Amino acid sequence: MGCKCENNCADQKVQELIEIIDKHKGKKGALIPVLHDAQNLYGYLPLQVQKIISERMNIPLAEIYGVVTFYTQFSLNQKGKYQIRVCLGTACYVKGSGKIYEELKKELKLSGDGTTEDGLFSLESCRCIGACGLAPVIMINDDVYGELVPADVPDIIKKYRDRK
Amino acid sequence: MMYKSHVLICGGPECTKSGIAEINKQFERLLREKSLENEVKILKTDCFGLCEKGPIVVVYPEGTIYSEVTPDDIKQIVEEHLVNGRIVKELTLGGKEAKEALKGLEEVPFFKHQLRIALRNCGVINPESIDEYIAKDGYRALGKALTEMTPSEVIETMKKSGLRGRGGAGFPTGLKWEFASKAQSEQKYVCCNADEGDPGAFMDRSILEGDPHSLIEAMAIAGYAIGADQGYIYVRAEYPIAVSRLNIAIEQARNYGLLGKNIFGTDFNFDLELRLGAGAFVCGEETALMTSIEGKRGEPRPRPPFPANKGLWQKPTILNNVETYANVPVIILKGPEWFSSIGTEKSKGTKVFAVGGKINNTGLVEIPMGTTLHEVIYDIGGGIPNGKKFKAAQTGGPSGGCIPAKHINTPIDYDNLLSLGSMMGSGGLIVMDEDTCMVDIAKFFLEFTVDESCGKCPPCRIGTKRMYEILERITEGKGEDGDIEKLETLAKNISVSSLCGLGQTAPNPVLSTLRYFRDEYEAHIRDRRCPAGVCKALLRYVIEEDKCKGCGLCARNCPVNAITGELKKPYKIDSDICIKCGACMEVCKFGAVSKKA
After folding, report:
1. What number does CATH give the domain B350-433?
2. What is the band of B106 on the pLDDT scale with cuts at 50, 70, 90?
3. Which terminus of chain A is more solvent-facing, meaning fewer CB atoms within 10 Å of its CB: N or C?
4. What integer pLDDT is reported at residue B318 of this predicted model?
């Protein structure tokens, strides 16, 4: 980690954030690359992070907030440890990914996209992950599960629950 | 070093996901065991396009294709094929049924009808090696353009070839370049749209991951033609492999002096930068994409001024899609006459389709323009699974439409698809069988556009939402007389008054399904019936008396206690209580529960 302070890990991250901003500064249209890197660092883009970017890049906070909320890749909320993405692209949809999504909601006790109370899972419907040959497909972090039927869902979730 | 055999392992996204890392490891281990590591070379290539049968391994010089390979199969392939020279027939593609193992890619029906120009190097070379690309004539076209041709000759070649944009609307590429070359400015830009957002299309991903240098070469040629020294590739962040291979390729090209200053010893300078998209479908629209590169909300701008005059940072800019660029080096090398000899009168060359949905062979298919839908679905795609009937093919994604069975013999090109009420789009081709409800599909696409509308102009933001609400009502059995007419009026108004292509084409899925499947809409509205049996609210679950053994399993599994009866006598479902979850149908061991439309 290289963090020498007692318990100021937040400061350490802020330091890294500032380095990210300075690395991109001066480049034309640098805001989106900065946001990408900042999200990689924090996992999401809380207001505090946006404020630092705003001050350091001299861009109004409202404009940054506008950009963050425009693109689906950027998130204002913390995501679960395991991020489940259900492909609802056309090929998957025709092959019944809607039912997989329903089953996941039931299994995770969510009413739609969101994060479970224990913070273990977040569910997200997405458009085409480009694996149409395996339809219907879900991704959990970097693992891909293809050719699914709703009955497969409980076992898959259990695997991650057991792992914690 | 000379190798006796080459083993090509598909490193495409779908095969990667089905575990080729383990296969690779097995090969390396077994080859070491047999001391063959200096005689057999393992190459990780990219997508062969036969994703349904993956993971794929091809062994040269024989050209034997092993399909659906598992790590356990490797021992047999190494011991039999690589040591003893005997092809393991039962592991080859179609091997179990075929009398003789197929000898090469070109013999497989899936490949026989194809002509690979844009995908020429995918699955053939190692995408992370510039030397392999150069060995396949790579960067020769750039050399020829820079040293033997003037910029206007390059543009003339592109115009003569008849190449049209592969990303959607099909605008002639040469013409676009000519506009930008005539614009007066100190600074110009070349952009590539690699923000492949159409659900169901992944050909650009395959080129980016399988042949990134062809894109770099083509963009440099475009830069030379219009007088630009800087290019941007706008690529989806959802494609991490593509991003990393592009970065590697750009670095290699710089090291070889193929990007940077004084390329090929001329005074032409050109460099490239990657910009990551952030998940907004509208950024596939050219002006929105440029706004996004500028670091803002990716909202489209009114045209004119067109990007050829005022694009990125208000400078003259050309934007082409990945597949369009992939054609450019071949056209420069083989000449415009060769290219324009392929295809139909107004659509030249080939088009890559991502074939998916209810079809046996899903995957990428590159066919000459003018090939019929029938050939794609039956000769290449292997037909519809489970003996179902073909109902329609959807092309052009959320901007396109459905082509019904009666037009299955139409040659595919830009103009024919348009006249059928669909469009080429980026090349997603989703096959639907009789179990697909066309109203539901129209609703699906509308939901997509409602979600992805950027919100800048009201016709798209509000109009598509209203259309979606009507469709939702219809599929819930609450349709009213006059709904179809309302949809048609809204559709017309949205398409003429929206600011950009997203809104202008958003009503297409509804219009085309109304055109060919109006009776299905009417059945939903008037008879409260979904002929395909998809729309949940319109279904009725019933227990067939003669099949029911009276075990009571359904009643115990019903979450709302809608099923009643006595043991050993037929049970009954009360449709007023039933929530149509289908649990009874899933648990019944005798197939006594059925859905009635």
Report:
1. 3.10.20.600
2. low
3. N
4. 97
Name the closest residue on chain A to residue B290, using Cα atoms: A29
Domain boundaries, chain A: 11-70, 82-163
Minimum CA–CA partner of B298 in chain A = A70
Reported ipTM: 0.84
Q: Choosing among B56, B234, B238, B508, which should be mutated to test the A contact, i.e. which has the most A CBs within 10 A? A: B238
Tell me the fold of B438-526: de novo design (two linked rop proteins) (1.20.1440)
Q: pLDDT-based confidence at A3, cuts 50/70/90?
A: very low
Integer Cα distance of A47 and A44 in angstroms = 10
Q: What's the CATH code, domain B130-340?
A: 3.40.50.11540
Among partner residues A70, A94, A134, which is closest to B297 by beta-carbon distance? A70
With a cut of 60, say whether residue A20 has pLDDT above it.
yes
Asked if A71 lies within 8 A of B280 by C-beta distance, the reply is yes
CATH class of B539-596: alpha beta
Domain boundaries, chain B: 5-102, 130-340, 350-433, 438-526, 539-596
- Interface contact flag, A28 B52, Cβ < 8 Å: no
DSSP 3-state assignment of B201? coil
Q: List the single residue in A90, A126, A144 with the smallest CB-CB distance to B430.
A: A90
CATH of domain A82-163: 3.40.30.10
**Are B238 and A129 inside 8 Å of each other by CB?**
yes
Chain B closest-CA separation from residue A7 CA (Å): 34
pLDDT the model gives residue A96: 87
Scanning the structure block, which residue is given the tokens 């490797």? B74
- Comparing CB atoms, the residue among A70, A90, A135 nearest residue B280 is A70
What is the per-residue pLDDT for B97? 54
Which residues of chain B lie closer than 8 angstroms to A134, CB-CB? 14, 17-18, 51
Which residues fall within 8 angstroms of residue B150, CB to CB, at 6 or more apart?
Answer: none
Q: Does residue B95 surpass a pLDDT of 70?
A: no
Region B430-459: mean pLDDT is 95
DSSP calls for B9-34: EE-SHHHHHTTHHHHHHHHHHHHHHT
- Tokens matching residue B580: 């149509």
B487-B491-B493 Cα angle (round to 5): 120
Is B280 in contact with A72 (Cβ distance < 8 A)? yes
Would you identify the CATH topology of the domain B5-102? Glutaredoxin (3.40.30)
Residue type, B432: M
Give per-residue pLDDT as tens, B345-376: 999 999 999 999 999 988 899 999 999 999 99
Dist. CA B228–CA B188, nearest whole Å: 5
Q: pLDDT tens for residues B412-438? A: 999 999 999 999 988 999 999 999 999
- Cβ neighbours of residue B168 closer than 8 Å, sequence gap 6 or more: B284, B321, B396, B399, B423, B424, B425, B426, B501
Q: Which residue of B has its CA nearest to A31?
A: B295
Tell me which DSSP letter residue B394 carries.
E
CB–CB contacts below 8 A, A to B? 121
pLDDT at B203 exceeding the cut of 70: yes
Searching chain B, which residue's CA lies closest to the CA of residue A128? B199
**Neighbour count for residue B222 (Cβ, 10 Å):** 29
Chain B residues closer than 8 Å to A132 by CB: 51, 200, 202, 354, 356, 362
Select from B122, B297, B513 the residue whose CB has the most chain A CBs within 10 Å, as the one to mutate to test that interface: B297
Q: Give the pLDDT confidence score for residue A9 in this predicted structure.
A: 63
User: Measured between CB atoms, which of B52, B296, B313 is closest to A67?
Assistant: B296
Contact A122, A84 (CB under 8 A): yes
What is the pLDDT at residue B112? Answer: 80
Q: Assign B191 a pLDDT band (cuts: 50, 70, 90).
A: very high
Contact B166, B321 (CB under 8 A): yes
Contacts of A36 in chain B (CB under 8 A): 237, 276, 278
